[in-house]
Amino acid sequence: MTAKASGKKYLVVVESPTKQKTIGKILGPEYVVRSSFGHVRDLPERELGVDEKNGFKPTYVIIPKAKKNITELKTAYKDADLLYLATDPDREGESIAWHLVEALSPDMKKVKRIAFHEITPGAIRESFNNARDIDDNLVEAQQARRVLDRLVGYKLSPLLWRKISKGLSAGRVQSVAVRILVERAKEIAEFPVESYYAVEASLSKPGLPPDFNARLYKWKGEPAERSRVLKLFAEDYRVRRTVFSEEAELNDARKILSAGPLKVASVERKETRQRPKPPFITSSLQQDAHNKLGFSSQRTMQVAQSLYEGIELDGQTVGLITYMRTDSFNVSKDIQKESREYIAAQYGAAFAPEKPPFYGKKVKGAQEAHEAIHPTSVAREPEQIRKYLSGEQAKLYELIWRRFLSSQMADAVFDTLGVEIAAGPDCDSAAPQCVLKTGGRTVKFEGFLKVYKGEESDDENEEETEENAKLPLLEKGDALELKGIDAASRKTSPPPMYNEASLIKTLEKHGIGRPSTYAPIVKTIQDRKYAERQGRSGKLAPTELGTTVTEKLKGFFPELMELSYTAEIEDRLDDVASGSAKWAEVVAAFYGPFTADLAKAYTGMEAEQPQEVADKCPVCGGPMLLRESRFGKYISCANFPKCKGKIRLD
Hints:
six-stranded antiparallel barrel, four-stranded parallel sheet, 25 strands, flat
């Protein structure tokens, strides 16, 4: 942006020093860019700060670390003709903009709010052309969330101190996340492991290689009603494979297969299409980065933030990706046009679909004004800019670039083959009692797979890995030879423990939390020692402390701990953001039942009794008790507080 002849000065306040540096290079000399260094005001640290009797009015104070910066911003504002608040384009960013106004006390006629989803000259210029007032609805939605979380935290924590252990704390959303982990651990512990038999035959067409495998698909019709083992599998498992719980049934099937004959009962050839996945939103980026790169959700957001705020390329600082806290699949027409031209030039016109793809809103409460996460320019290929990036930045940028570019490409097209093979004396009948099934899939047109290789199937079940099976030319009526039978005994397995990716996916599925909260939720439950990461697998397991707290809260706070209720609160916060609900009324509707449950918990919840151990106090020689806090397990003197004897165990 070029300097104006008027000689006016404009103060632009952003949230981070990196963003300050990037935007400062884009704007002209009449723009002074400063950073707020994040939040500048919050509820007081050591008191509730919410007036429960006066409409839940919050009391805000300047954060200690922000006091010096606020003074400097006030000085900069005195020399400015206009103040532009350029904080992040979400509710939290809107709230920070409002807090800046409250802290700086500017002339509101000289204050404008600007927001952009990518840090590029075009997007910055567009934001100034569309400057607006602060959106009070967004501010109040964020305020409602902050007040709700403060009320829960400050009211529940003393209860946990009294009933379980000093130093514990609880959160509105975090407690539900821990419950999800606790219930999965319980499900795993109680899972009924049973043996079963799955039959697979090795077959050949005489004189025509190669040999191939086929799985038992039907046995005397459908054994779902007869075999209790089948009920331990996912709903769609039984259509993929017939299994036996009794060895006698297995032996009957083995005899029929061995005696034969075996004939091809049907051959189905058809063309199938696979649509690319949509571009990343916050949750899917965190899940993919965890599964493919081994990044924690917190690390993913830190690296994405650096790509968003700007990387220096040949002396120019450029924002490489759009804003990374989003739940919308929207994509701008400009980037779609650029992508279409790039795809056609690089891969051919056939790889660009006739119409730009549209991905409907799938996330409950998605903020459709946002955009999906994508490169600010697809022309910046990962290999071209790798030398400017750290290893983590390069990996995450390539993940985002490939996912987005593929989302704008044509469908992949496959030739698929499904073959059913009848066995036994009734193999020529319309309903043979023993049927095997196999199939194959070959790529007819790569489409988006040209860019996003290795993503052909969403099915993680190892039973279904037949897409690339090599089959001889088979026709209906062909006689086949049996080469062998694989009928090894197997065992049912429980559902897996959650990791960060699957926990975030579950939170999103239930409408719990929002893009800005997923990573903090995962981090908080680990910081509070309610869950722990297990070894290199990254599985999240609830701790003994997390299980204890969860069971106590479930008994006395059924609504607070209910997944659907937590999601309902998120919906109500969305209503505040849209202007269809008042924030204080939403808080009041929650707080009434919550305080009633709290009163019952104080009188009805049994306190955990510490267990006496064999060790003696190193100070007074008295008995010692096993205790646990958010810092871990320890033993302390039974005569506390008179005696301070204590030994840490973790």
